[in-house]
Design a protein that fits this description.
alpha/beta; Rossmann fold; six-stranded mixed beta sheet; 14% strand
Length: 440
């Protein structure tokens, strides 16, 4: 078996490029690119043999296969030199059985894929390990890349800064001023990235970063770069692997720039093409109501898509009005009989608070997905007895301000029905006993 992969035009042009070329769009038609794999070569190993190989590598120490991403190396970037790989043992995050919360919303078979339990606290690590490793491979092959840059709402910048720091590659980060959490701002600063705080939103940062990466000397790290997608698609493979190679009925994921939903679709499709699974799950993208261009297109029957100006939402990482992967997302949703749901600020914060009361500690973006599950279950779209997996994209500890604002009743657009504040008392045992008697 000698697997290989290359860039190909998403729109179907007969255009192909090597993975070490600095290229993001088809030079003929301007469409985004896919990483396409030689499936015939991969079929030289049976589905059962792939399952056995992936299970033998799972969370082991043999470099680089202990990573949840690089344990699937042949499906991600075949042929990359192991010395080029930059890894923090990303992936392998736990698949949490959320039974108590699930029962409370009528979804008894509910699981949460905790992608925030990763090195920088978000699923972005899965794509960034591939992209930064690819940059090291480019440099090793003589490409003149002198830095890597991204526009970010927070999590991408943290992942880029960390992986570039490990690789010894300069990282440039463009953030919308005052629109990311303090924790998200501090992460790239701590890892030595050059951070530019621009007086605009994410879409404005994206326009700038596209221009500064035009000449190829600075490499673009946003999800329009399909190398990122290759790492992120391993979430789908991990979900199936952790469910003993069975396919859930639904997978629900929050969506902003929409590379994540396309990555999920690619992961499931690749498993189906190679015989590891027999069917695809239905997919759902959950959007904040204040940043919902994909939801609006879905409600129009996919007849009309229009970019919007995203409004401020607690789910800041998906506060995007003109997603770069819109066409990719629509294609995969159509292919999986997928749906799009939205959540208001009140709905997402309420879902977070109730789920947190069952032991989780969710970020606001996961709250958007949880609220979507609740709405789909109430509508009967998610049927009783169906298995549902929610992809939690980031760790709740990155969003302390969101938690504080909710529990002090100061969160914009939300009613704090489940707030929990400390009880302030004198250091007196009788006062403590009275408070406990009233509470228990």
């Amino acid at each position: 078996m000698n697997p290989s992969a290359r860039f190909s035009c998403f729109a179907g042009c007969d255009e192909h490029y090597a993975l070490d070329e600095v290229v993001y769009r088809c030079r003929r038609c301007g469409a985004l690119l896919d990483v396409t794999h030689d499936l015939d070569a991969l079929r030289a190993r049976s589905a059962a043999a792939w399952i056995d190989l992936f299970d033998r590598r799972w969370m082991r120490t043999a470099w680089p296969y202990g990573s949840g991403v690089w344990g699937k190396l042949e499906w991600v970037y075949p042929g990359i030199a192991h010395d080029s790989i930059v890894s923090f043992a990303e992936g392998g995050s736990n698949l949490l059985r959320a039974d108590r919360y699930g029962r409370s919303i009528g979804v008894e078979d509910l699981w949460v894929k905790q992608c925030g339990n990763s090195h920088t606290g978000s699923f972005k690590d899965l794509g960034m390990t591939v992209l930064v490793s690819a940059v090291r491979e480019m440099v090793r092959r003589g490409r003149g890349v002198r830095a890597v840059a991204c526009a970010s709402t927070g999590d991408t910048s943290a992942a880029l800064a960390a992986y570039c720091a490990a690789a010894g590659v300069p990282a440039l980060v463009l953030l919308p001023r005052d629109k990311v959490s303090v924790a998200q701002l501090l992460q790239p600063l701590a890892n030595g990235a050059t951070v530019l705080s621009l007086d605009t939103d994410f879409d404005g940062c994206m326009r700038v970063v596209k221009q500064i990466t035009d000449d190829g000397s600075i490499y673009l790290a946003n999800s329009m770069n399909s190398l990122r997608i290759e790492g992120q698609k391993t979430v789908a493979i991990e979900i199936v692997q952790q469910l003993d190679w069975s396919v859930p009925d639904w997978v629900v994921i929050p969506g902003g720039n929409l590379g994540n939903i396309y990555a999920l679709g690619r992961g499931f499709q690749m498993m189906k093409d190679l015989g590891l699974i027999a069917r695809m799950p239905r997919l759902c993208v959950a959007q904040a109501a204040r940043a919902n261009p994909l939801y609006r297109a879905f409600k129009s029957g996919w007849d009309r898509y229009e970019p919007i100006t995203a409004q401020r939402t607690a789910a800041s990482a998906i506060q995007i009005g003109d997603p770069v992967s819109i066409d990719r997302a629509i294609r995969v949703l159509k292919a999986t009989d997928g749906v799009v749901e939205e959540a208001s600020e009140d709905e997402l914060s309420d879902a977070v608070a109730r789920a947190d009361r069952t032991g989780m500690y969710n970020c606001p973006h996961t709250g958007v997905a949880l609220a979507a599950v609740e709405k789909l279950a109430r509508a009967g779209t998610i049927e009783r007895g169906q298995r549902v997996v929610v992809v939690s994209t980031a760790h709740g500890l990155k969003f302390t301000e969101f938690k504080r604002a909710y529990h002090t009743g100061a969160l914009d657009g939300a009613t704090a029905r489940h707030d929990n504040r400390p009880i302030e008392l004198p250091a007196d045992v009788d006062a403590v006993r009275r408070a406990l008697d009233a509470r228990l």
